[in-house]
Prior knowledge:
By secondary structure, the chain is mostly helical. The protein has 19 helices and 6 strands.
Amino acid sequence: MSFSSPFPPNLLPDEGSPEWMNKADNAWQLIAATLVGLQSVPGLMILYGGAVKKKWAVNSAFMVLYAFAMVLVCWVCWGYRMSFGDELVPVWGKGDIALTHKYLLEQAFLGMFPNATIVFFQFVFAAITLILIAGAVLGRMSFYAWMLFVPLWLTFSYTFSAFTIWSTKGWLSKMGIIDFAGGYVIHLSSGVAGYTTAYWVGPRLTKDRENFPPNNIIMMLAGAGLLWMGWTGFNGGSPYVASTDASLAVLNTHVCAATSLLIWLILDIIFFKKPSAVGAVQGMITGLVCITPGAGVVQGYSAIIMGVCAGSIPWFTMMVVNKRVKLLQKVDDTMAMLHTHAVAGILGGILTGLFAEPHLCKLFYGSLNKYMGLFHGLRVGTSESIRWGVRQMGIQAIGILFVLVVNVVMTSLVCLFVRLLVPLRMTDDELEVGDEAVHGEVAYAISGQGEKVEIPMYSSYYNDIETPSKYGVNSVE
Length: 477
């Protein structure tokens, strides 16, 4: 069979498939976005729901679901254009809607697919950033305060970092910062913002801080598995093209995560004499965070080195430094976001500046000399190459400082504003009871053979005592 066109009929351009669009790239980008979305819903939803004390399972999971929905509405109404649109000031874009078909069907500013695709792809990144912040304040932040915090923080903090680092018009982007998939914009931001929010919200009840066991480790592990596999889209989708660099990014991501998990596990066994599933999840997360800023621009052996660092340095800050520094103990960081995301994000940014390969950077950025890791510059040995390597390290450091300052300042301002309207922290009565007091719902209705334990003011399953059932079998909270 012969065709008058060099392309088969299904590849011929038409109104729904213009000449500038690559169907394969568009398909992969939508799949990658969906994988990242699944990291949040249901990934982090069930990870948080399983990792907290039983009385907070519903609240923790619901914070994720709410943030996912709220961010999407804000994103298409103004957030996307503030992050990737025309410049308003050097660190911020002009707010505008991304809802008209004329705009959504035009070619995106990067990639061979329409704006609709990149709006959705970037939405899931924005959403998971807010959801990660929630990890620092689980078990005590008022849900009403959270409802206000999400749109405000997205508007006045996330958009600053996204525009400055990821938009082609941002000043750090023009300078040449390397943040392949969000080590700065997402993980460093969420770690710093989460810790700052935890400071303003205040701590959990003392007894909860001292005894806060996961209510379902199997469910937590299931959420962690979704988080890990979803990172295929997180880093693999960041080149905006189904390319060899996307493949390298995916492989490096999983190699670094696996290495970090194993290092964390080994350290737990050496110092605590037990292999901890919860610890392994922490190590997995730090590895994923660390590789994110450099996933597609470093060699495979560099990914292993980054995994070793990600599994050991955040472990040390969490298990040793945090317990010895009284200032750190004053802030109640429920899911240790400072260590798993801020420390690991800083580590990833610095190591990316050391290990970045110019050839791989060219595949991603399209420029050969502008991006060069310090180790490559030293290996080449010329004064120019060393200068480029030192310059890259300087830019990476400036980026870290910028994200730190923006998130501490803007998150504090958002928290202070929200506090004027509603309390940031739940009441002590609500903190004693948990989900049923806050939402009128409980996670596990099978507790106590379905019989509720009566306590003052609330009918709750959560009494933290053994309650006899009518069948003579104890139910333990």
